[in-house]
Amino acid sequence: MISQAHDELEAEYLIRRNRLSYIRIGILAIALASSLAVVGCTVHPLLTYHHSRAQVDWWLPLWPQHFDLRPTIALGVAGAVVGSLSLMGLLFAFVPSPRPRTKLLNTMTAVAGSCGLVVSTFGVAYFNALDGKRERDTLLSWTCQWSEVVKSAPADFGRICIESKFSLDMVVLLIIFDVLTLGLAASGFSMEVKMAKARRSANEKVDELS
Question: Residue ranges of the alpha helices (H) in the chain?
């Protein structure tokens, strides 16, 4: 009877562990895809800016003399860091191992979620702080302000404006994914603690009957 209860307990534990693993992989995969989108939507405007800044075909310069690229770079760095952490988590989850690595996976998930949350939050806060000062124009403020006026210009201001807004929104979404990742790690640690207590209690009952 005790053996049957123990087997049922272990079976339920395996189901819950596998369920958490699938959810973890899904969130990491979505975070990786979102991070790649952020990097792409920040690299393209930066490349366009550098390529078109020296153009002299227009009677007015496309870009102001004092320009701040730091907000866009901050979002790109945040996307790259979260993407790297997500990729490492996915690779580690799929690498086969002869022994269970539940505790190590939970630890890595917690570290990835914590680092990603800090970097993403800093990126968004830094972007908003610099873009809101208006002391210097940024890619977002300048292109969105003039996208209708110079939409036929080689710099493609309309697209850069959309990409800048999209990258900011995606980094905000990455913050949500990082919070979910931390929640999964907390659930994993809690499940391991409860299972350890259940196993200890089951072993004590077996010892009492022996």
Answer: 2-52, 70-94, 102-133, 139-146, 157-209
Contacts of 194 (CB under 8 A, 6+ apart): none
Q: Which residues pair with 68 in a beta bridge?
A: 138
Model confidence pLDDT, tens digit, residues 41-75 = 999 999 888 887 766 555 556 777 777 889 999 99
CA distance 23 to 111: 17
pTM here is 0.83
The answer to whether 155 and 62 have CB atoms below 8 angstroms apart is yes
CA distances from 207 to 4, 6, 202 (A): 16, 14, 9
Spatial distance between the Cα atoms of 60 and 195, rounded to a whole number of angstroms = 69
pLDDT digits (tens, 9 = 90+) for 81-93: 999 999 998 988 8
What distance in Å separates the CA atoms of residue 67 and residue 45, rounded to the nearest whole number? 13
Distance CA 140, CA 145 (A): 8
**Six-digit token string for 36:** 């790649």
Alpha-carbon distance of 40 to 190, in angstroms, equals: 37
**How many C-beta atoms surround the C-beta of residue 97 within 10 A?**
9
- The tokens describing 62, both together, are 């496309």
137-138 and 67-68 strand pairing: parallel
User: What 3-state DSSP class applies to 57?
Assistant: coil
Residues 6+ apart with CB under 8 A from 130: 68, 70, 71, 136, 138
